[in-house]
Write a structure and sequence with these properties.
Strand order of the largest sheet: 1-2-3-4-5-6-7-9
Oligomer: single chain
CATH superfamily: Luciferase-like domain
Structural class: alpha/beta
Shape: globular
Number of helices: 12
Number of domains: 1
CATH architecture: Alpha-Beta Barrel
Strand content: 15-25%
CATH topology: TIM Barrel
Number of strands: 9
Helix content: 40-55%
CATH class: Alpha Beta
Order of helices and strands: EHEHEHEHHEHEHEHHHEHEH
Length: 336
């Protein structure tokens, strides 16, 4: 099956039971190289804080590492939680990345905190302020458009002579769709955890879209959760690690990603099982044919230009195999 949409990856840098954090970080490089060789369009890193099962807390460091170890794949944030950061610091960080790897960096921006209330306090997050104010400040720094009497007009953004990479807004309910269109950004929808259908948000985005230098026409990404294995049965077996981890997280018990053997043996409360029953309806799990058919159906239903997959499997080799199977199912042309 040849996909009429691009295929991309999001990496949360999961930390599996029985492995060290250093091993998890090394795996981000191995996965980036695999994705580049397989022909995937882009690879994004999330920003999450205070979660023992996830090593992706500082996307720009992972982006720089992945870009330095690959040749062609676009690498970016999926996304920077802007309320956690001074806009000037983000402007300088992503200008630096763009200068080091011109034409290969994406700046995805999200309004969520990326952690619980304690993490937000530790980050000095501006969660009580408007995301739009942070975004306007970021753009003013990049475009040098502060009014002359504004104190920040005297602050040169370093490094100079470089603009920010293409900017994307991330959403999970459609609230950001109109803003993304009006600003001429790309728009990515988190269908991997949101039960809100992406199609209305994409329609709102496209109707509001105003062309920009980075995006002469609208560009939409639908992010989905995928676990692929040679058979439906094996994929379902491997998915238990993700399912139990999600249930434990929502009930306040956080730990590294457990093996499927331990996950299947874990006795859950009725409330935890209800969480899995509710959330698992969003997950795409199965053989290459099952996964490809389901992704294609969802992409057609939402009119997405691109599908971005995030995959949570305890065994890192089997996670890379999952992406290999999906790329082959969609006849993605590998890069030489």
């Amino acid at each position: 099956m040849t996909a009429p949409f691009a295929l991309s990856l999001q990496d949360l840098a999961p930390i599996a039971e029985g492995t060290s954090t250093s091993q998890a970080m090394a795996e981000t490089i191995a996965l980036a190289q695999t994705a580049d060789e397989l022909g995937y369009e882009r690879l994004w890193y999330a920003e999450h804080h205070g979660m023992p099962s996830i090593a992706s807390s500082v996307p720009e460091i992972l982006i720089g590492s992945a870009a330095a170890h690959t040749k062609s794949i676009r690498v970016g944030s999926g996304g920077v939680m802007l309320l956690n950061h001074a806009p000037l610091r983000i402007a300088e960080a992503y200008r630096t990345l763009e200068g080091l790897h011109p034409g290969r960096i994406d700046l995805g921006l999200g309004r969520a905190p990326g952690g619980d209330g304690y993490a937000m306090r530790a980050l000095r997050s501006g969660g009580g302020e408007e995301f739009s104010n942070y975004l306007a400040e970021l753009m003013a720094f990049d475009e040098d458009s502060f009014p002359a009497d504004h104190p920040y007009s005297r602050v040169p953004v370093s490094p100079g002579g470089i603009s920010l990479p293409p900017k994307w807004l991330l959403g999970s309910s459609g609230n950001s769709a109109q803003a993304a269109g009006q600003l001429g950004f790309g728009y990515a929808f988190a269908a991997h955890f949101s039960h809100t259908p992406p199609a209305p948000a994409f329609e709102t985005y496209c109707n509001a879209f105003k062309p920009s230098a980075a995006f002469p026409k609208p560009r939409t990404i639908m992010c989905v959760s995928v676990i692929c294995a040679p058979t439906d049965e094996e994929a379902q077996y491997l998915s238990r690690s993700q399912a139990v981890s999600w249930a434990l997280f929502t009930s306040g018990e956080q730990r590294k990603l457990m093996s499927p053997e331990e996950a299947h043996a874990r006795v859950l409360t009725p409330q935890q099982q209800a969480v899995i029953d509710h959330q698992s309806s969003l997950w795409i799990i199965g053989s290459p044919q099952t996964v490809a058919d389901t992704i294609a159906e969802k992409a057609r239903g939402s009119a997405a230009d691109e599908v971005m997959m995030t995959t949570t499997i305890h065994d890192y080799g089997l996670r890379r195999r999952s992406y290999e199977l999906v790329a082959k199912a969609f006849d993605v042309a590998p890069r030489v």
